[in-house]
Amino acid sequence: MGISSSSSEHSTSVERKDPVVEGIDIERHAVAESHLVNTTVKNISWKGVTVTVKDRETKEPKNIVDNVDGIVEAGEILACMGPSGSGKTTLLNFLASRPLPSASGGGTTTSGSVLINGQPTSTSTFREITRFVEQEDTLIGSLTVRETLDFSFRLASSSKVLPKRERIARIEGLLDAFGLRGQKDALIGTPIRKGISGGQKRRVSVASQLITSPRILFLDEPTSGLDSKAGWEVVKYLKEVARRNNLIVIASIHQPSTATFNLFDKLMLLSAGKMHYFGPVTGVTEHYEALGHEVPLHVNPAEFLLDLVNIDFASEREEAVKALDDMQTAWQGSERSRQLTAAVAEAEARGGDQVDISTAGLGGKPGLIGSTATLLHRSFVKSYRDVVAYGIRAAMYFGLAIMVGTVWVRLDAAQESIIPFINALFFGSAFMSFMAVAYCPAWLEDYFQYVKERRNGLYGPTALIISNFLIGIPYLFGFSLLFSVISYWLVNFQPTATAFFIWVFWLFCDLLAAESLVVFMSSLFPSFVISLALVAFANGLWMSVDGFMVQPTILNVFYKYVFHYWDYQKYVFENMMINEFKDRVYTCGKLPEGMTGVNGSNCQCMYQTDLADQCLIRGQGVLDQYGYKPGKQGRDIGIMFCIIVGWRLAAWVVLKLKK
């Protein structure tokens, strides 16, 4: 049996009526799955693939993938297997034109070629015809199985090209093909609400990529974290889909069960970056038996092979290295190796038609408006189902409003209430923005989903940033109104409707800026702990220099000119102060009987204004202590707008630059 299966074998496999998935009527779903049938990509081949990195300790170059060749024909499923550190994940990422995991160490160089139908393919075309399923199931937990497939489809296909009825038919077909009909309306699962099982999530991950009509599907450890039964089911579904629709499936796999191992058509065995076998799974035992390594009876062949090429735990290191080198040398001189070299050369020499992405079955991709609308819809569904997104924050803000309203309850318009009024203004606005850190986990879920979908060519950072900003507006305004309705009147701030709505507006701006900061920090450092710490630190800094802790008139020059003027809390606090004090008058404190104050009055005023002789304090006198002057609200609104947009633009740049 040769390395590449005959074209006739796989051309007829599309019409098979004996599906691996029992109980599925292939004819009933033929129309629904017509978009999956591959008629353009005949094979994918790679030659001389080498990935070299600098060793972090010795600084010497080290090949983590060393001169690897391979070819997979349409309708075949390939297992890339090897012990940990063998280079299989790096090779898979190289083949899929994705950033290499080892690149973070610096000094990474690559060589070799990947050909489609024997020809080089542009990056844009390659992204159109391939999809990559991550090792971790990056799914939005608050969506149902059906909704996950639907949104994936809509992000990949323009609604102008494909009618809604056909989209639904394709989703239903995949639900049946992957055995997910019974879970179609079940949630994927959130930290608060349990969802579908791990095996079902894996199938949803695969189905969500298949629905976008790839011709080549890459999977990184599709059975990782699953028991042998669930792993077998996943690979069984992959095999059936590949054969029925003439697709190419390439999967890295760690240690499959015997039943799962036998489902693969081809095996690529790696160790220390070098190839030890490439060919049909049915021929691997024969190859190693010829080398004197017979697979024991009742032993999993995959487990035996991995033990054979793994020298990490060898007691006699030198002997193990020599034995491994001998096996690799034997492979290079084997008939299978020569067949592989000939098959790769033949595919390149034969060439073929350029891949026509117009036959992908989905039609044109949605533009910016279409992608943004779909993401906005998806975010809306997530926002009202997942309490982590906004529900927890609503509860936090409600509790904070009760606390502020009852601690500073019904303050009088008297001078002893002026400091408490100022404290309440600062505390309410500052802690409302500080609590925006609760948005970190919700944004990180969107971020990791974006990374996966962008690498698969579905949309870019512009659509994500715009949709995320728009979905937050009604919720943040609702939070501002909720907090204000409770706390504003309990505290007894300026008791007019105009002052109330000005307060709500500035609190709303405060939350918009705070959430924009969260989006930037969490995009820059997509780790919950790190982003949480950085956002908390930044908010602590803004509180320190916004003008409350140290009045702007005496604030340190460094902090004043480096941080104060672009501190969004500064503009919120300043305008809330102006809103509260500019048109309000406060009574002065009375002196003990027998004592007299200025101009013989019986009162003492903390702030001297033109109303002191009437034992009153004009609110502007309080503002003068901070250097605040009314009449600059329009300018401050413009500055706040720039700060909000600036943080969003900074997040956009981060997302754009990250691969």
What brief labels describe this structure?
659 residues; alpha/beta; Rossmann fold; 13 strands; 50% helix; ATP binding
What this model shows, in words?
The chain has 659 residues and is α/β, with parallel strands linked by helices. It folds into three domains: 7-357, P-loop containing nucleotide triphosphate hydrolases (Rossmann fold, 3-Layer(aba) Sandwich); 370-571 and 633-657, no CATH class; 583-629, no CATH class. Helices cover 50% and strands 12% of the residues. The chain contains 23 helices and 13 strands. The protein has helices at residues 7-11, 88-95, 123-129, 145-156, 164-177, 198-210, 228-245, 258-261, 284-290, 301-309, 317-332, 335-350, 368-385, 387-407, 418-434, 440-455, 461-491, 497-524, 528-545, 557-562, 568-581, 619-626, 633-657, and strands spanning 43-54, 61-73, 77-81, 109-116, 130-133, 216-220, 248-253, 266-271, 274-280, 585-587, 589-590, 603-604, 616-618. The strands form four sheets. It has a six-stranded mixed β-sheet with strand order 5-6-7-3-8-9, with helices on both faces. A three-stranded antiparallel β-sheet has the order 2-1-4. It has a two-stranded antiparallel ribbon with strand order 10-13. Helix 13 (368-385) packs across helix 17 (461-491), helix 16 crosses helix 18 (497-524) and helix 18 (497-524) runs parallel beside helix 23 (633-657). The model is unreliable at 1-32 (pLDDT under 50).
